[in-house]
Amino acid sequence: MASRKILLNGKRVAAEYQAIGSGDSETSEALLYWLRERFGQQGPRFGCGVSQCGACTVLLDDVPIRSCTRQLHTVDDNAEIRTLDGLSGKRPHPLQREFVELQAGQCAFCANGMIMGSLGWIEGRITAGNHEVPSEAEIEDFLSGATPNGQGNYICRCGTHTRIVAAIRSAAKEMVR
Predict the structure, then answer these.
(1) Where's the [2Fe-2S]-binding domain (predicted)?
(2) pLDDT category, 150, cuts 50, 70, 90?
(3) Which of 43, 120, 125, 175 is 20 to 30 A from 169, comparing alpha carbons?
């Protein structure tokens, strides 16, 4: 069996994974299952299985990715992966706190994707020098996949979309300081 070493939520971990073939024809298990089954990460969830809904989103080297279709052999050794499970320390992250305070998640199945995707998007803006609080329109564009990086959409089937936008905007005010 092949193995992979990563930095998971700030902690060095390693585990084997299932791989078939080699080189260009290699396939391996999805990052989502490896994180959930080997390391007990419950934040990323299986939603659609085809990178459409965002429920499985994690940050890979600070970039939001869909872990349901990302094969583990394509993740570099020593890559940094952040999940919702490792987001908060002694206090909830501003995104987590605002999602709770504004009741942005009715069933909360989408919350992992909304929070982790927004985190990567806002941190990416800050890293690029943009310290402006995103407007509601910018947040809606991000969530719909209409942003320049086209990272995909994030779907909430419960209809709490306006509260999700408000929670992201409120948390961004604190994050961009």
Answers:
(1) 83-169
(2) low
(3) 43
